[in-house]
Amino acid sequence: VLLTDKNTKEINQTIKAFATMELKPVEVYLRVAPITDGVEIDLGDEHNTRVRITSGNVELLDKGSGTLFHRTHLTMPMTHPAEKGDLQKLKKYLRSIEADHHILLIAWISYTLAHPKGDSTNFVHLCILGPQGAGKSFLCRLLGTLIDPNVVNLQVLPRVLKDFMVAAQNGHVLFYDNIRTIQKNIADLMCGAANGTASSSRQLYTDDGVSVMFLHVAMVLNGIYDFVTESDLVQRTLILNLQQMD
What we know:
The protein is of the alpha/beta class and 246 residues long. Helix content is 28%, strand content 23%. The strands form 4 sheets. It has a 5-stranded parallel beta sheet with strand order 8-9-12-7-13, with helices on both faces. It is globular and about 60 Å long. The N and C termini lie far apart (62 Å). 26% of the residues are buried.
């Protein structure tokens, strides 16, 4: 039986009515969710596997979790964690990073994976600078695979608020490639994204309906030139320098 647009609309209205009567709002998260004394990470696979991380303990769950995650059509599955981790294995892929910056990168990865979107989270943006041939884009793709696999990995930096907002609804981390300069209004948006901000606009096809979108997301930016110059953005950004590879 094929549902018409009218049937679909009626079904949606009925479901919304039941939800309103129940009055039991439930938080839904994208990729990372807070739990008591820790976080859960959605691996995004077909078995709904989660990684539950608490102090000194890591568990793989495929049932028994009450945490609700939202996946978009862009969400891709993460690799299952190994039983025993070895951070040294990353070094062979990070030959162009200085030793102290390698430690900072590990810290950024850990922090970003350990913090869900929420009122208490202040994300730190990551800026990767280096000459041509330093592996900046490769490092961004590697980080995307580790932290938040997405159909759209490296993107061109948007120029308008709405594009940032839409992208932020589809990922835990956003990756922007080959940046030369950042205009002041875009730098202000990035500052808002680190701390969490919102924007409202008129809903389509309505006179008084209001649509609210939230911008709260970590960003990874790369380029040859030093483009993070606004003081507020500098305070919210970890800058790593890469060396040219042979």
